[in-house]
C-alpha cells in the first residue's frame, strides 16, 4: 500500500500545480507524513506488513484488497479520473 500511496502523492504533486489544495505538500489532509490515516507507518489497516489481507506474500488477492482500501482514503476523492486510472495501472504493474 505504501507504494500505491507514494505513487498517488507524487502524481498529484506533478499534475496538480495549478491547485494548491490538491498538492500534498501544501495540504496536510492529503499528505501522508502529516495525516496518519493515509500513512502506512502509522495506520496498521493500510500497512501490508500488519494487514495480511493486503500482504503480497499472504493473500493472492492483495492487489484488489489494496485497491479497495485505496478507494476509501482521502486521496481517492482528491484524484481525478485520469489519475485514478494511472494509479490502477501502477498497482497492476506491481
Task: Explain what you see.
This protein is an all-alpha fold and 94 residues long. The protein is built from four helices and no strands. The protein has helices at residues 2-15, 62-71, 74-78, 81-93. Helix 1 runs antiparallel to helix 4 (81-93). It is globular and about 40 Å long. It starts with a helix and ends with a helix.
Short summary of the structure?
This protein has helices spanning 2-15, 62-71, 74-78, 81-93. It is an all-alpha fold and 94 residues long. The longest helix has 14 residues, at 2-15.
Index terms:
94 residues; mainly alpha
- Compute the gyration radius: what is it? 13 Å
Strand percentage lies at: under 5%
Which range best describes the helical content: under 10%, 10-25%, 25-40%, 40-55%, 55-70% or over 70%?
Answer: 40-55%
So what's the overall shape?
Answer: globular
Mean pLDDT: 97
- Give the tally of β-strands: 0
The biggest beta sheet reads: none
Q: End-to-end distance, in Å?
A: 11 Å
Give the uncertain stretches in residue-range form: none
Give the H and E element order. HHHH
- Provide the structure class: mainly alpha
Give a topology summary.
Layout (H helix, E strand, L loop, with lengths): L1 H14 L46 H10 L2 H5 L2 H13 L1
Helix pairs in contact: 1-4
